[in-house]
Amino acid sequence: MTQAPTTLISPDPLISIRDLSKHFGEGSARVDALRSVSLDIFPEQVIGLLGPSGSGKSTLLNVIGCILEPNSGRMELDGESVYDGHWLRPNLRQLRLEKIGFIFQAHNLMPFLSSIDNVALVLDLAGYNAIEARKRAAELLDYLEVGNRADAMPASLSGGEAQRVAIARALANKPRIVLADEPTAALDSERAGIVMDLLRKLAIDQKAAVIVVTHDEKIYDRLDYIYQLRDGVLDIESQEDS
Fold it and tell me: In 10 A of CB 92, how many CB atoms?
């Protein structure tokens, strides 16, 4: 197993996990999805999470996203201890709104809302007033170079445009942690590169940590580190050493 990097971008990780385990079922039907996983991810890092189907990738992403509760271990997000044998926050929805942005393979945009309204919806949920929400949404769409499609409905967007709007939505609450599940799987090489360049720009501009679950070999050279999950066990390979 390759050791984690010793030269750190920051002394404080944005994601810190220790001995995290998750199983499903009991007795002979028990499946150990995560086995004593430990890792630190720092600001400005873009991390790839690889592994075969059933290896625990989605489970780990959902645990970090505070969607799925582990069975044991500890987890800190953006300097806050959020799990230590149990959730330490009573309102996980609010925690996700404050700290985490999600990007999926399917853009999952609301089909009856325009691009700008899809982004503004997240801000409405976070407590922004309508004027502030639309202003922030417009700025994000411009940042991602789809400002000219602000009033377009999802059905009229290209695949690349829809994914950029979905990224804008994920960034609406200014998260320090971005979790992307196969964000380039449905895109060609050029569009996949654009999406990854945008995630890199986000990581640098917002001092964020980005985790990308992927099987997409064409983006491996854009990842700082590749974590391999096999039967719930985590291994790390530095891109600098590969």
Answer: 15
